């Protein structure tokens, strides 16, 4: 197969997986998902000669970099808006979620959010994307042993966060007793 055919096959086979990967990381900013996914496949097209035989982990690595660029861009825009004083808080519009806004399992996402972005990513690659350690290594651009160690440490830190949020003595109603112990 030619490089163009290899790219076309990778696009057809992995478009939705990459879209889901991006959507889960943009937390509701659905308007941007297509833009980031298009950027991922633009990079893949330019580097189609470099596509590995199993391209999904490589595409996740590209998506990770594209998302980082997007996040940096948001940060720059947010800082500019803050400097201009044109944000909702400057105009007294505060929106508070009611107690019914708590979604089941939200505490897990809260514990995950307390971790570093690197820990969050390695955990999401294994849990959400279903990647094996070898594939995580490709997505993160590191060796297999480094990926395994990052995963082990991230799991340990997540367990510690869950333990902090859900001490057995107080068994918070948002937590499942015993989660994180094992």
From TrEMBL:
Which domain of life does the UniProt lineage start with? Bacteria
For the RNA polymerase sigma-70 region domain, which residue ranges apply? 20-76
Report the sequence similarity comment from the record.
Belongs to the sigma-70 factor family. ECF subfamily.
Q: Which PANTHER family match?
A: RNA POLYMERASE ECF-TYPE SIGMA FACTO, RNA POLYMERASE SIGMA FACTOR RFAY-RELATED
What is this protein's record name?
Answer: RNA polymerase sigma factor
Listed A to Z, the keywords are: Sigma factor, Transcription, Transcription regulation
Instruction: Give start and end of each RNA polymerase sigma factor 70 region 4 type domain.
Output: 107-158
């Amino acid at each position: 197969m030619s490089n163009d055919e290899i790219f076309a096959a990778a696009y057809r086979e992995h478009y939705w997986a990459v879209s889901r990967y991006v959507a889960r990381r943009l937390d509701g900013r659905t308007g941007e998902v297509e833009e980031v996914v298009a950027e991922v496949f633009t990079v893949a097209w330019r580097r189609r000669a470099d596509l590995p035989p199993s391209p999904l982990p490589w595409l996740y690595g590209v998506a990770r970099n594209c998302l980082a660029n997007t996040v940096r861009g948001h940060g720059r825009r947010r800082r500019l808006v803050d400097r201009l004083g044109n944000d909702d808080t400057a105009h007294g519009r505060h929106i508070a979620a009611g107690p019914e806004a708590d979604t089941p399992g939200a505490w897990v996402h809260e514990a995950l959010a307390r971790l570093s972005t690197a820990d969050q990513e390695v955990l999401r690659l294994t849990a959400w994307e279903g990647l094996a350690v070898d594939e995580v290594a490709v997505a993160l651009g590191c060796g297999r042993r480094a990926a395994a160690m990052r995963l082990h440490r991230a799991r340990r830190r997540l367990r510690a966060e869950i333990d902090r949020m859900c001490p057995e003595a107080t068994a918070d109603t948002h937590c499942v007793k015993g989660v994180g112990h094992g």
